[in-house]
Amino acid sequence: MALVRCIMEMGMGVDVHGRNYTAAATRAVYDAIHHSSLGFQRLLGKTADDMQVEVTIGVPNPGAVDSAAVAAILPHGTATVKSVAGGLEVPNEDGTDAMVIANAAVIVLFDDGK
Q1: pLDDT (tens digit, 9 = 90+) per residue, 34-85?
Q2: Which of 44, 68, 89, 110 sees the fewest Cβ atoms within 10 Å?
């Protein structure tokens, strides 16, 4: 089986208060997946559920992202989610809170049947 990259979308998500990295990450994935509507899989004799979806989340604290919660918002396919160092955390004036900005790369792959 060889997986072929068919689509790559990028998104950004923000949690304005509370340093909720998972909320920022899920918003970034939501932003990414709502830039397109996939219909080409029928040309491959596949369905949307045949997709392999690789999600990479960039945030300052990768360990604070709940990967299962991020994967759960994807409507189709089998997802893998990894978090890496990236994004931004912008503290408020007195340092008691921060805005978290997450970036997402969502890659859709299909098995080419070979």
Answers
A1: 977 777 787 778 888 999 999 999 999 999 999 999 999 999 999 999 999 9
A2: 68
Sign of the four-CA dihedral 62, 86, 22, 80:
negative
pTM for the whole structure: 0.92
Q: Give CA–CA dist 43/5, Å, rounded.
A: 15
Rounded CA gap, 50 and 103, in Å? 25
The residue extents of the domains of the chain are: 3-38+48-111
| Residue from 50, 44, 59 nearest 104 by CA | 59
Interatomic CA distance for residues 26 and 13, integer angstroms: 7
- Is 3-38+48-111 assigned to CATH 1.10.10.10? no
